Amino acid sequence: MGERERGDFSEIPILDVSALYGADQDAIRATAATLRRYLETVGFLYVVGHPIPRADVEAVREASKRFFALPEDEKLKLKIDRNFRGYLPFAGSTIVTSSVATVSKPNQSESIFFMHEVGEDDPRALAEKPLQGPNQWPDEAALGGFRETIENYVGEMSTLARKMVGAIALSLGLPAGSLDRYFDQPTTFLRLLHYPTQPHEEGLFGSAPHTDYGFITLLAQDDVGGLEVKNKAGEWVPAPPIPDSFVMNVGDILARWSNDQFVSTPHRVINRSGRERYSQPFFFDPSMDETIAALPVCVPAGASPKYEPVLYGDYLMERIDKNYHYRKKKAAEAASA
């Protein structure tokens, strides 16, 4: 893949992944080959042909709307905790680690995070390891069925994400299961986002230009739009909603893992539609205690990897601590104690 082709796109491609759920090995390999081309050139694609029912996607969206419609004091009962689970109030993050823009204004959104479930009696939680603890759930009396809806969706999205992990391995000429061990205890985030209509103001974004931290993101959009992806010419290419699709993109750790063979492409959200926007990105990342080093198949003969190996948990925490206001506040309080 020549450097000339990286980032050379004017629209987001579409990939039918139905073959990944079947047994036809030729069809699976063909899908993986196409996936590789999209990850090398664009870093973004629409995933269609998956078996996740539209009703399940919409159920999560409706649950999200119900939660964000609650009074602020009710939402704040679930205020985000040290394990990065719970409600992040409006303008609660500023992407200071962005490699594609100087960001000084907070994102114009509110959100609630649900990560991989870790019980209070789990050894990881008892040891107070980073990001290991139970999720915070709304009161069933107020939002009946909320937890069941979210957990069902996370299960479906995790299955799809694992199919994509296998396809990524195949795309590199590796056995389909060769990367699975890195995801024995995956780090997952389902983030429900609410973007009010934002004013026209320089440097103000629903989500400022950035690249994602992790392995892959699978995003379900509503019909409002506002997501844009940056190509090598510096143009912001719209990624409009397509029914029954997920927008998938490469995160920074996958780019690093592939020795930059796959591209983690900048993107942003601007909601000037006059309507409220709701989205539900699902992030599927390696286990916190896995070391990520460039895959040998991605390093040319005689060359050295572009990046040193990194413990995924350390890498992730550095970014979270810098970008979320509540984390910086806690760090400052600890330093002054």
Automatic annotation (TrEMBL):
Its EC number is 1.13.12.19, 1.14.20.7. The keyword Electron transport does not apply. Pathway: Alkene biosynthesis; ethylene biosynthesis via 2-oxoglutarate. Pfam families: 2OG-FeII_Oxy, DIOX_N. Keywords: Ethylene biosynthesis, Iron, Metal-binding, Oxidoreductase. It comes from the Bacteria. It is an enzyme of class 1 (oxidoreductase). Residues 186-286 form the Fe2OG dioxygenase domain. The keyword Iron applies. Gene3D superfamilies: B-lactam Antibiotic, Isopenicillin N Synthase, Chain. InterPro entries: DIOX_N, IPNS-like_FE2OG_OXY, IPNS-like_sf, Iron_ascorbate_oxido_reductase, Oxoglu/Fe-dep_dioxygenase_dom. Its cofactor is Fe(2+). It catalyses: L-arginine + 2-oxoglutarate + O2 = guanidine + L-glutamate 5-semialdehyde + succinate + CO2; 2-oxoglutarate + O2 + 2 H(+) = ethene + 3 CO2 + H2O. Belongs to the iron/ascorbate-dependent oxidoreductase family. This is 2-oxoglutarate-dependent ethylene/succinate-forming enzyme.
